[in-house]
Specification:
heterodimer, A: Rieske Iron-sulfur Protein, 34% helix, B: mainly alpha, two-stranded antiparallel ribbon, binds protoporphyrin IX containing FE, binds FE2/S2 (inorganic) cluster
Chain lengths: 362, 560
């Protein structure tokens, strides 16, 4: 019979259909923990009668389902051919975005139809025309039989005896030692993923130095102090950055925001009196949380907002953190003007910019 | 009854068939292959293996098929994508970016989108399939959890599956980073900051990973190797183990008449399951293709190439990374200290640790529950979630925890959309992260127990049929319709556990482990609703005389 071609039982699985006392449970040590097992449990009523489908009863319905399945498969053929035709007939015209969209749409629809036709056809076929009588397969405990397990144990014992793995401790231990060491060269090999130089000095300095002009990002044109009106903000890069080979690496540290406040709004701590120029201040744009550009400046409140995790920095208080996960203020770039009135740096930042790292030292 | 299952299913009588040319060829070919591979044994073993049917069992299949779609579309993309960060001046056909400096990776992605026919389609198929892949694994995992399908003998497969889930997210993140556009670069910047925040080794890991300072020119090629070689290889291997274990353990099935812990009831692989599953693969592929032809995803040309300076508000990672981004946003302020000459950034390390713990707890949950119940039997009947109230409640708490983190990744959007301050949103979410799971736990547990009581009620006394009859005495009652035994079985066949009694061991001691275990089992099973027993059913039917019943009758007893 089709139902039991695995030949496990002889056609009377119904016997086992009660919940308790099964071949499975006999096959393994019985430990049900804190499960409640009583004799008063209800009994499994066994399989309900099978309900034939329309297609089983009515040859016309059967015929119709057959036609539908065939139709769906033909539809798939149409879809695939359509896709190829669309590929050829609707090419991409360079510069014409509309042609890209059309190509994408028609090609996609063709492929989708090709796939859906087969898929829906196959499922319809299975549901309507293939046997829907449920079959039963017995489960067996997952563990091997006692005999198999005994054999496995015996094999290991034999292997151990013939090799002397336990007896010859010297050999075994030296082998284990050797095996433990073999992966280490592989780990060492990865050292050259990065250059020999220590990364820490790189993180401590930027290209800003005494006299470097502050220029507009991205054009690189210098900024006069008189261009910076009260309330305005400039995205700034150091002069000459665009000509560097490692431009992105340097920009990722050197990007600066420039703002002008009324000098009396600034709360300047001792030692930083000369770092602003007439209310013009420059702060690192790299968030001290995990390094996003702190690009949003609220003019009224003089707050800088990081769009990544919403840390907020108060420019009137030297970019102190007033909200969010960041902990340190944004580092300040000391600035002044040169003889031509352009804004220049007085020095590099006095501390590393950007996210914290272990060796940073505040 | 059972007998009907055994009647032969052949629809047409096996009439003597004339050997056609085709069948002679098939026979010859089968023989040729078998004599060289003994494949007939495999067909005999697996060909008629039984698969139970339930819509929720298809979630794993969706994952599998979308993965195949990912492999196919991804292979196409590798033929055109250039994993290089060498800088070039864009000269393709997308006019707004002409003359802009960008990396080779970005340029080739633009070329795939705008100069190669079907390229954009393949990119979009690949990305949509990836989203479907991760979503379906997540849902699949939830179904395994809430039905208890992770119990013996499937604990190992749960762990393997969970590893697949992590690998899938890793694949998603590495893939998202490849085009080297503004958003993906910004994502990498965050990863760089995260890594640098790891105590002691962080600085060096970042340096080695990026091959220099951030961003360097190595990261895209390196991620490419991970994305198309290393991670897929591990993923395919783990998937292989996952499916082999599935065959060995056989599928679980829901309780139902005729279904027991010792059998599998369903359709055979050949032909029905193969046709359904094979067809389903094409449906998944078709649906992904349809979505990809209609909806744009990840339009990198509107973001532009990576530049460390600009960023726009409201940028979001792909949704499945959201929970990690949210965790970063919800840390309390000022969690960073100087330890001697070293900086300890708990504000970054804490989310990493919390998420790590969350992952570990989820991964090892099956072993925890097995220890609490002490149940060493195999379980092949999937639980209805309500019948395991504490497990379901823990799951709901976990889902809530994840959901709050996930929502936190959109804290800025929530704030602007509902016109509340960002401070308010963050504080609310911080509270919700702790309180939400607790509320979810208790509410879910109550709901489950309520549903169990209701089931019990219906199993014992039938359901209200809506039919009102007038008794000879003039009083009106509603007729209660009894369930047939098959329907009733679905409601009452579940396993019941009772809390562990603390007992001294052989040495007369009560160990700490014993106490913990008793405490946990008490937590799990103190509110029990016992399944309907034979005696109870007989009693219920005895006094109610079947069909008619005046009042709602006894309420589900809370057993102790
Ligand atoms: C690459 C991702 C995955 C694929 C392609 C996949 C595929 C499948 C398929 C096709 C099934 C059988 C059908 C079903 O029960 O839905 C299955 C079963 C199973 N999966 Fe997954 N799965 C994936 C991830 C996961 C994850 C993340 C978990 C859990 C952490 C998991 C745990 C399980 C378990 C325990 C089973 C056996 C279920 C049973 O017999 O009832 N899988 N998987
Ligand atoms: S990177 Fe600025 S808040 Fe996280």
């Amino acid at each position: 019979m089709a139902q039991h071609d695995d030949g496990v039982t002889d056609g009377s699985p119904v016997d086992d259909h009660t919940a308790a006392g099964s071949s499975l449970e006999k096959a393994m040590p019985h430990d049900s923990g804190i499960a409640v097992l009583t004799d008063d449990l209800m009994e499994n009523p066994g399989f309900p009668p099978h309900r034939p489908r329309q297609t089983d009863l009515d040859p016309k319905k059967d015929k119709r389902a057959e036609k539908q399945v065939t139709f769906l498969f033909y539809l798939s053929i149409v879809g695939s051919i359509f896709a190829v035709a669309a590929y050829v007939a609707f090419p991409i015209v360079p510069g014409d975005m509309e042609s890209v969209r059309t190509n994408n749409l028609l090609l996609g629809l063709g492929i989708a139809l090709g796939m859906l036709g087969i898929g829906l056809g196959a499922v319809h076929w299975a549901k309507q025309l293939m046997s829907d009588i449920e079959l039963v397969e017995e489960r067996h405990g997952t563990r091997g039989t006692d005999a198999t397990r005994a054999k496995a144990v015996e094999i290991f014992a034999l292997g151990n005896k013939e090799s002397g793995f336990t007896r010859r401790g010297l050999i075994r231990n030296s082998l284990i030692g050797a095996l433990v060491l073999t992966p280490i060269p592989a780990v060492v090999l990865f050292r050259d993923l990065a250059p020999a130089a220590d990364p820490i000095p790189l993180l401590q300095h930027t290209v800003w130095k005494k006299g470097t002009r502050l220029t507009r990002d991205p054009s690189g044109t210098p900024i006069k102090a008189s261009d910076v009106t009260i309330g305005s903000a400039f995205h700034v890069i150091p002069e000459g950055l665009n000509e560097l080979d490692d431009k992105l690496e340097e920009k990722a540290k050197a990007a600066v925001l420039l703002m002008r406040l009324k000098p009396e709004d600034l709360h300047v701590t001792a030692g930083r009196e000369t770092w602003n120029y007439d209310g013009i201040v420059a702060y690192s744009k790299i968030c001290t949380h995990v390094g996003c550009p702190v690009a949003l400046y609220e003019q009224q409140t003089h707050h800088l907002l990081c769009p990544c995790h919403q840390s907020q920095f108060d420019i009137t208080h030297e970019a102190a953190v007033i909200f969010g996960p960041a902990n340190r203020p944004l580092p300040q770039l000391p600035i002044t003007i040169d003889s031509e009135g352009y804004l220049v740096a007085r020095s590099d930042f006095h501390e590393p910019v950007g996210p914290s790292f272990w060796e940073r030292q505040f | 009854m059972g007998a009907s299952v055994l009647t032969t299913a052949t629809r047409s009588p096996a009439a003597p068939v004339e050997e056609s040319r085709g069948s002679r060829f098939t026979g010859w070919a089968a023989n040729y292959v078998d004599e060289r591979t003994s494949i007939s044994g495999l067909v005999k073993e697996l060909g008629r293996k039984i698969f139970p049917d339930h819509w929720s069992f298809m979630l794993g299949e969706v994952a599998l098929y979308s993965f195949v779609v990912i492999l196919l579309s991804g292979t196409f993309l590798t033929f055109f994508f250039q994993a290089s960060m060498t800088s070039v001046i864009y000269d393709g056909s997308y006019a707004p970016l002409k003359g802009i400096e960008m990396s080779n990776a970005m340029q080739s992605t633009l070329d795939i989108s705008f100069d190669i026919r079907g390229g954009l389609l393949m990119r979009q198929i690949h990305h949509w399939a990836a989203l479907l892949f991760i979503a379906s694994i997540g849902l699949h995992m939830l179904r395994i959890y809430f039905t208890g399908a992770f119990r013996k003998p499937r604990e190992i497969n749960w762990v393997v599956g969970f590893i697949l889930f992590i690998l899938a997210m890793a694949e998603g993140f590495t893939g998202y980073s490849l085009p080297d556009d503004l958003l993906s670069g910004n994502g990498l910047r965050i990863i760089d900051g995260l890594i640098k925040g790891i105590p002691i080794v962080g600085t060096w890991i970042s340096y080695l990973l990026f091959g220099s300072q951030f961003p360097g020119t190595d990261i895209v090629p390196r991620l490419f190797t991970l994305h198309i070689l290393l991670l897929p290889a591990i993923l395919v291997a783990a998937l292989g183990i996952h499916l082999v274990l599935l065959v060995i353990n056989k599928h679980t099935q829901f309780a139902g008449p005729g279904k027991t812990n010792n059998n599998v009831v369903g359709v055979p692989i050949m032909p029905t399951f193969a046709a359904k599953a094979g067809g389903f693969f094409f449906i998944i592929f078709g649906v992904i293709a349809l979505i990809a032809s209609l909806f744009t995803i990840n339009p990198i040309w509107t973001y532009g190439p990576y530049d460390p300076s600009p960023v726009s508000a409201g940028t979001q990672p792909d949704w499945y990374i959201g929970f990690a981004d949210g965790a970063l946003r919800l840390v309390p302020p000022h969690l960073e200290w100087l330890w001697g000459p070293y900086t300890f950034s708990l504000n970054i390390f804490l989310p990493v640790v919390v998420l790590g713990l969350f992952i570990v707890v989820v991964m090892f949950y099956p072993f925890l529950e097995a220890w609490v119940t002490g149940d060493k039997r195999e379980h092949h009947i999937a639980d209805r979630p309500r019948n395991a109230p504490t497990r379901t409640a823990i799951g709901a708490a976990g889902v809530t925890f994840y959901a709050v983190l996930w929502g936190a990744a959109s804290s800025d959007l929530i704030a602007t959309h509902f016109l509340i301050s960002i401070e308010g949103v963050i504080t609310t979410l911080q509270i919700l992260l702790i309180v939400g799971p607790i509320i979810a736990y208790f509410v879910t547990k109550r709901i489950c127990i309520g549903l169990m009581k209701k089931d019990r009620e219906i199993a014992l006394h039938g359901y209200e049929s809506g039919r009102i009859v007038r008794l000879p005495g003039g009083e009106y009652i509603e007729v209660h319709e009894q369930l047939d035994p098959y329907e009733r079985w679905r409601l009452i066949s579940f396993e019941d556990y009772q809390p562990l009694m603390v007992r001294p061991n052989a040495k007369g001691e009560i160990t700490v482990a014993q106490r913990v275990r008793a405490g946990l089992s008490n937590w799990f099973f103190e509110d029990r609703i016992a399944p309907v027993s034979r005696t109870e059913l007989a009693a219920a039917h005895g006094d109610a005389h079947g069909a008619l019943e005046g009042d709602a009758g006894a309420h589900g007893a809370i057993g102790h």
